[in-house]
Design brief:
The complex is a heterodimer of chains A (524) and B (331).
Chain A (H helix, E strand, L loop, with lengths): L20 E10 L2 E11 L4 E6 L5 H8 L7 E6 L2 E3 L4 H6 L2 E4 L11 H5 L7 E2 L2 E2 L1 H15 L14 H14 L4 E5 L7 H16 L3 E5 L3 H7 L2 E6 L2 E7 L5 H9 L18 E10 L3 E9 L3 E6 L5 H8 L7 E6 L2 E2 L5 H7 L1 E4 L3 H5 L6 H6 L7 E3 L2 E4 L1 H14 L16 H15 L3 E5 L7 H16 L3 E5 L5 H5 L2 E6 L2 E7 L5 H8 L3 H7 L3
Parallel strand pairs in A: 3-10, 3-11, 6-9, 9-10, 15-22, 15-23, 18-21, 21-22
Antiparallel strand pairs in A: 1-2, 1-4, 4-5, 7-8, 11-12, 13-14, 13-16, 16-17, 19-20, 23-24
Helix pairs in contact in A: 4-5
Chain B lengths: L1 H8 L3 H29 L7 H26 L7 H17 L5 H24 L5 H20 L10 H8 L8 H19 L1 H11 L1 H6 L4 H27 L10 H13 L9 H20 L4 H27 L1
Helix pairs in contact in B: 2-13, 2-14, 3-8, 3-11, 3-12, 3-13, 4-5, 4-6, 4-11, 5-6, 5-11, 7-11, 8-9, 9-11, 12-13, 12-14, 13-14
The chains are: A alpha/beta (524), B mainly alpha (331).
Bound molecules: adenosine-5'-triphosphate and magnesium ion (MG).
Magnesium ion binds next to α1 of chain A.
Chain lengths: 524, 331
């Protein structure tokens, strides 16, 4: 099995054969907003082609056009040298393209096999679907991508990574010749991501092309032989070979050099303990977590996806009730009955799943920013009506300071690109300046420019006395940002890193600590 | 499906802009077109101040109950109990005034309070016991129908209804405007202000938009949902009272059919101005479309059955056009 995954330097791309796909000068406007002004790119059979660009550069829009979900206003698409019109998603499938969008497509109530066969024409006998024959056909493919769950098991309870494999498997069953992946590693743990890379290389070796979209440049450099860069709706660069390196990519993405925010975090004086948890437990995800959070510090929580970090945040925020353990806030006992109580007590949470848990997609940016700050946006105590002018100017300020790419504050958030949506979710709480701010994966899907900006804002809040708790699975994020890092594994805190000890390496190492062994070494 | 998709490929930006406008203003254009058509076809009977006042007066009761229902749907739930509740309220207020000889203001307050309690019960069952709102409110509505029959023993209360009670609905006030219209304007105006202009209204919209996100933003979701049901219940009570006053009697099932009219108005409204969102102003437009449609057909002496056909057809066509226009314009 493993031998099939070819590792090593990606093959140099010099498409000798006809490209599988050629997109030429594609343009697309939504209302008055010109999302694509003319992008071109071509993909050779079996090539791993990278696609990068800042938030709102038009990557997802381009993908949706390939997928037949949107229709271009201008431009030409060729497949195997023939000009094609992709009117519907079915047409895109027929043409040999398969898409793995960031919001993974699966039906929770069905089995693994049913999910794999979603939307795929199925074999039938006597008018009934012949699941047994289908299972025989699918089994080798499932083995190839490494689906360990039995085909007839329910997908409920499977991890994101496994759902992801199901999506890959679906693409292969459809005999896709190009698989498009939009930010595939955003919610995968490091080891799962490694596995994904192996699969991508294997696909490429067997002649399936991959269009790989990511904000993580390391992955792009590691995987791709050629990379197209979009900026403001245009394809501004195509890098390959020696030109393909990090500085060149960054420059093409932002259109100029970028100040690289080095780790400037010095041991700073920190304030009093604002929040304290002792032996907090909610089985099975959180087990006996104790921590102290000081005013003016940025405390990171590292660890693998599934280590119980999000669940811990939910306990602190009153979204779930602990089985046992205690919390204190500003010296007083703190038992939030609901998030509303937590907000009143001075907490804020930016949840992990922005679309499902943070945003009101059909509502305006101004609405989304103001919903946690309504008390500050009324005309006055005796006229409890919304002050619309104050709200608009607050939203305008936020849009400017987070450089949210939108026409104006009344644009519905659902129309923003993924990264810009995340900025809105963060802006909501920056506005409120709570005592304790918890951020769960704050820069997932955010481009490098905005990421620096978000980090700067977080630091600034901490400097003005806020206590900040940051959860992140991106190995580089916590060292950039935090004064102190706690690493969680299997629901427990397995290590505390302070000052100079906070490094990418130390965090990754601690993530793999076996908490069981730790317990035996140092019985609590 | 695919035909639509393929033809969409050839839509010019101009066509898309027109479709977009139709999606938002289609219902309003339809309403105006209907008024113009009827005015041309029947210039003496239709476009008169008298007729318009009449239509509004007639429609006010439906508008009030639909306004309440709007609050329930804005918070993301359905309230199917309103028609049955209004029937019960009608019998109850007549009984309180005729049999128990209560002063009318006191009786009104009692009945509206009961409406609030029914809303509270609906909201409690939905949020705390977590029963789907369709089931919960259908169940409560059925129980209310039973109570209405029990209270009236199946016999309408007709005799001895005091003139002052009739004047609630039949009377006129400022500049001779019918009371019904004044009450309707106050109720819908108040609801509009609440939903669109107060902080509480922002929370109400947030809960309907994404209840999970609202909760994590610190909104007390259950309380907001219960509030939606309470307002819906109180508006149903108001409609029940005014209907009893207008009919001069308390009859079981008298207000049942308001349920359908209210739903039609609310969904027509969701296709108005905003992309598929429920809102008070939209409900008002929806109710006007239904009211003028019925009135026009009445003037031309169309048979009763056709009025139902019309109401159903308008609803499907208007909401369908809006959503089709929207999806074509967005591709
Ligand atoms: N349905 C829509 N209506 C209006 N504008 C839209 C719509 N979809 C996308 N846009 C706009 O098009 C631009 C490009 O968005 P797109 O989602 O393609 O960006 P992206 O490169 O994928 O960004 P990200 O990295 O943040 O995901 C953005 O400015 C966005 O606001
Ligand atoms: Mg995107």
């Amino acid at each position: 099995m493993q031998a099939a995954f070819t590792r090593g330097a990606p093959q140099q791309a010099a498409p000798m054969t006809t490209p599988f796909l050629v997109a030429h000068d594609i343009a697309k406007a939504f209302g008055g907003a010109q999302a694509l002004k003319g992008v071109s790119l071509d993909i050779a059979p079996g090539e791993i082609h990278g696609l990068v660009g800042a938030n709102g550069a038009g990557k997802s829009t381009f993908i949706r056009i390939l997928a037949g979900l949107n229709h271009p206003d201008a431009g030409r698409i060729e497949i195997d040298g023939q000009s094609r019109e992709i009117a519907t998603p079915q047409r895109a499938t027929e043409l040999g393209m398969s898409f793995i969008h960031q919001e993974l497509a699966f039906v929770p109530g069905m089995t693994v096999l049913q999910n794999i066969m979603l939307g795929v024409p199925k074999k039938s006998r006597f008018g009934l679907t012949d699941w047994r024959a289908i299972a025989r056909d699918v089994a080798p493919i499932a083995r190839r991508v490494g689906i360990s769950a039995p085909l007839n098991a329910s997908v409920k309870g499977l991890s994101t990574a496994e759902i992801w494999l199901i999506n890959i498997c679906r693409a292969l069953v459809r005999k896709a010749r190009l698989i498009v992946m939009d930010e595939p590693t955003a919610s995968l743990a490091a080891s799962e991501a490694e596995r994904l890379f192996a699969i991508v290389r294997d696909l490429s070796a067997s002649g399936v092309a991959v269009l790989y979209i990511s904000h993580r440049l390391d992955e792009i450099l590691n995987l791709c032989s050629r990379v197209s860069v979009f900026r403001d709706g245009r394809s501004v660069a195509e890098l390959a070979g020696k030109e393909l390196n990090r500085p060149a990519l960054v420059e093409a993405i932002v259109g100029g050099a970028i100040r690289n925010p080095q780790r400037t975090v010095a041991a700073r004086p920190r304030g009093n303990v604002v929040m304290e948890a002792s032996k907090l437990t909610r089985a099975p995800k959180v087990r006996g977590v104790s921590l102290r959070l000081h005013a003016g510090e940025v405390l990171g929580i590292g660890g693998l996806v599934g280590a119980g970090r999000t669940e811990l945040a939910r306990l602190l925020f009153g979204a779930d009730r602990p089985d046992s353990g205690e919390m204190r806030l500003a010296g007083r006992s703190y038992q939030p009955a609901s998030p509303a109580a937590a907000v009143r007590a001075g907490l804020g949470l930016i949840p992990e799943e922005r679309r499902a848990e943070a945003l009101f997609l059909s509502k305006s940016i101004a609405f989304n920013l103001s919903i946690a700050n309504l008390d500050k946006l009324v005309h006055g105590r005796y006229l409890p009506l919304m002050n619309r002018r104050a709200r608009a100017s607050m939203a305008g300020d936020m849009i400017r300071s987070l450089s949210i790419k939108a026409r104006n504050a009344s644009t519905p958030v659902g129309r923003l690109s993924g990264g810009n949506q995340q900025k809105v979710a963060i802006g909501r709480w920056l506005q409120r300046t709570p005592k304790v701010l918890i951020l769960d994966e704050p820069t997932r899907g955010v481009d490098i420019g905005a990421r620096g900006e978000i980090h700067r804002l977080i630091r600034q809040q901490a400097d003005s006395g806020m206590a900040v708790l940051v959860i992140s699975s991106e190995p580089d994020e916590l060292p950039d940002l935090c004064d102190r890092v706690l690493v969680m594994a299997e629901g427990r805190i397995v290590r505390e890193l302070t000052g100079q000890a906070v490094s990418r390496k130390a965090i990754v190492e601690a993530s793999y600590v076996d908490p069981q062994a730790l317990m035996e070494d140092h019985p609590a | 499906m695919s035909d639509v998709a393929i033809s969409a490929r050839r839509l010019s930006p101009g066509t898309k802009a027109v479709l977009g406008i139709f999606a938002r203003y289609g219902t309003i254009i339809g309403l105006l077109a209907m008024i113009v058509t009827f005015s041309i076809l029947s210039p003496q009977a239709f476009p008169t101040v008298n007729n318009f006042t009449n239509v509004l007066n007639q429609a006010s009761l439906a508008m009030i109950i639909a306004g309440g229902l709007t609050l329930a749907v804005v918070v993301g739930e359905l309230d199917l109990s309103i028609g049955f509740a209004a029937s019960l309220h009608g019998i109850l207020i007549t009984g309180l005034v005729v049999h128990d000889k209560l002063p009318i203001p006191l009786a009104v307050v009692i009945v509206i309070a009961l409406g609030a309690v029914i809303g509270l019960v609906n909201g409690f069952i939905v949020t705390k016991i977590k029963v789907n709102s369709v089931i919960a409110t259908l169940g409560v509505g059925t129980i209310l129908t039973g109570l209405a029959f029990a209270y009236s023993a199946g016999v309408p209360i007709v005799a001895g209804v005091p003139e002052a009670f009739l004047q609630l609905s039949l009377g006129r006030w400022l500049f001779g405007i019918p009371n019904n219209i004044i009450v309707m304007i106050l109720v819908l105006g108040g609801l509009w202000l609440l939903v669109e202009r107060t902080p509480l209204g922002q929370e109400i919209q947030a809960v309907g938009g994404n209840a999970v996100a609202a909760r994590l933003a610190g909104v007390n979701v259950d309380r907001i949902k219960i509030l939606g049901f309470v307002i819906s219940g109180m508006c149903a009570a108001l409609t029940g009272i005014l209907l009893a006053s207008r009919l001069g009697s308390g009859t079981a099932s008298a207000a049942d059919s308001y349920l359908l009219t209210a739903f039609a108005a609310v969904f027509l409204g969701s296709a108005t101005l905003r992309d598929g969102e429920f809102h008070v102003l939209g409900t008002l437009v929806g109710a006007l479309i239904i009211a003028f449609g019925f009135n026009g057909l009445n003037i031309f002496g169309a048979p009763t059955f056709s009025q139902y056909v019309l109401q159903g057809a308008i609803l499907i066509i208007a909401v369908g056009m809006a959503s089709l226009g929207r999806s074509l314009a967005e591709r």
